[in-house]
Amino acid sequence: MLVHIGRIVNKKIIGKYAIPAFNTQDLETTQGIVRAAEKQKAPVIIQTSVGALEYAGIEELVGIIKTEARRAKVPVALHQDHCHDFSLIKKLINLGYSSVMIDASHLPYRENIRLTRTVVSYAHKRGVWVQAEIGRILGNEDWQKVRSGKDLMTEPAQAAEFAAETQVDTLAVAVGSVHGIPVNPKIKRILRTLKEHIDLPRLKAIKKKVKIPLVLHGASGVTDTEIKAAIKAGVAVFNIDTDLRVAFNTALRQNLKKHPQIYDPRKILTPATLALQMMAEKKIKLLKANNKGRK
Length: 295
Ligand SMILES: [Zn+2]
Description:
- Helices cover 48% and strands 18% of the residues.
- It is α/β, with parallel strands linked by helices.
- The strands form two sheets. It has an eight-stranded parallel barrel, surrounded by nine helices. Strands 8-7-10 form a three-stranded mixed beta sheet, with no helix packed on it.
- Helix 2 (27-39) crosses helix 12 (265-286) and helix 3 (50-56) crosses helix 4 (58-71).
């Protein structure tokens, strides 16, 4: 069933388990995610990026997700990932998103607060949650390319001030995870200096000061041990995109290589969707969200 994000992300889950926020851009990915959630009886967030909406079309993609979510036997919430366009956010709220991320992290701090507050005021009047980002998460995400290192990590005191001033409902923090697959040599170099680790002391310090649910972006590259530690340290939502894409891609290539004669898109895509579902199930279990989504 399609639910408000507040039904599945709340203070009760913090420290115990976390909700996966999976990205989609098409029917196959959406079905793979929903089937994984149903199989594992898990609540999930399905999220769209600006690029995904451009790829599939807004009404088309939202129509697919809402139809799948409504039919699902588990709670599914709809969230918009990184968005810096207020008019698009308004449109998505009208289409039934229960949560949106205003990403003004490229702006100077005071301007980030100002724009975030404007979005929060609009969204809250309509019962919709807002996520924002403080600090800059490394890597590539749609139009954003963040290349420099440690100085962009979230500062606990600033995170607390930001959360209080903007009244956001969830907060994305930069504590060492990376968007996408790090192929850029500069990012690889930065990661080596950071030892590719989640900065757990920093995360714990943020959690102490910030009482709203924390979100970790770029969780695909984070090790399982660190994910478990991050859940204990207070992360309530993990954004997962790259791992699903890689699973889909690998299976697709293998299938085409093994069966070069197939030309029916259904036969080409079905094994890839299944591989994506398996990966989503693995992530759900890692976050301990399995069996938490019963009606
Ligand atoms: Zn992100």
